Amino acid sequence: MIQLKGIAWDHPRGYEPLIAASKEFSKRNPNVNIKWDIRSLKEFGDMPIEDLIGKYDFITIDHPYMGQADANNLLLNLKDKISKDVLDMHAKESVGASYQTYNFKNNLYALPVDAAALVAAYRKDLLAELGCSGLPKSREELFAYYKTLPSRKSVAWALCPTDFWCVFLTICAQDGGRDFIKDYTLNKTVGVNALNEIKKHLDFIHPESMNWNPIQILDRMGEGNEIVYSPYLFGYTNYSRKGYSKNLVHFTNSPVNPKQEISTIMGGVGLAISANCKEVKTAVDFVSFVADAKIQKGIYTKEGGQPGNLVAWTSKENNELCSDFFTNTMKTMKDAYIRPQHPMWNSFQEQGACLLHEGVLKNIESEKLMKLLNELYKELCNG
Fold first, then answer.
1. Nearest partner of 145 among 255, 33, 38, judged by Cα
2. How many whole angstroms separate alpha carbon 282 and alpha carbon 205?
3. Cα(199)–Cα(202) distance, integer angstroms
4. What domains, with CATH codes, occur in the chain?
5. How far apart are CA 80 and CA 101, in angstroms?
6. Residue burial 18-49, b: 16+ Cβ < 10 Å; e: rest
7. What stretches of 230-309 show up as alpha helix (H) in DSSP?
8. How far is CA 9 from the centre of its chain?
9. For 88-116, how does the pLDDT look when each residue is reduced to its tens digit (9 = 90+)?
10. CA distances from 157 to 12, 31, 136, 245, 250 (A)
11. Between 43 and 333, where is the model more confident?
């Protein structure tokens, strides 16, 4: 019996489809057993791969880790193990740039099994009751939108440190373009304007926004009636499925800057193999199995997953299952901003997120925060 072990992240979207796919794989390969552990959403974004590769064969991973994985030889290069024809198909069936994000220096360290970006969530039923017919399409329209809602209803943003960082980078990219980061420096003017804009929104949004992540907001939207709209959070198809929570949550594209063809920051999950894995052939077969269009469109989506394959996203059945989540957020995925992937980005991302979040809570001037942020970036990357 071949025993393999993986680590997913702590939400039904993160672990249930992988457990289901593992059971199906074992049915077809009775000599293989795959067990899954879970880690928190914060650990998914921040925990170093070095802490995982000795214990796990499979690692669910965020794409900015590719540079670190490459520099320290942490993950298996799938280009050496999967045929070019199969990889070309994965590239063709990618949702936006999902497939490309797991490439680094012509090596491929994961296959996309989950695709995501910051999108907007809303309670369609509540907005209909309030007579609110439209949603803001641009960031400028957001300020006017707040005034259309009665005082008992709220707009919430996901602005805990990790998600504050994602919103901040989104606004920077929408205003400064895809190259607002150069030579380990964020464009100071763009960054200052983004921070000042976020601070202005804090006067209008739910007071707990600075503490919340997307799951906390979506749980409240699904169970209560206070929050009617959230413009920037990572989408979860689970909440757009009937019966998952008390109330159905719909999703659509986030507000943008109409002057740029950039939507929001890309997230998603890649399935990678530890460089220490002993059963390489079986592990590669499983990763290919999970990422295959038939599995992605079928069991992976049906068991609560948010697939990374375009065939699954364009499936009529899957869109019916998820209240057109995929169709209604496709433009965001196509135009998403990709974060840097160099080896020190993850350390910078974690520390930079805390720096900005704490600075805004303490009402530190945006100019000073950007100065500190760029000093941190250069220190990490040059040291």
1. 255
2. 49
3. 5
4. 2-116+267-323 (3.40.190.10), 118-252 (3.40.190.10)
5. 18
6. bbbbbebbbeeeeebebebebbebeebbbbeb
7. 280-291, 293-295, 301-302
8. 12
9. 999 999 999 999 999 999 999 999 999 99
10. 22, 47, 14, 20, 16
11. 333
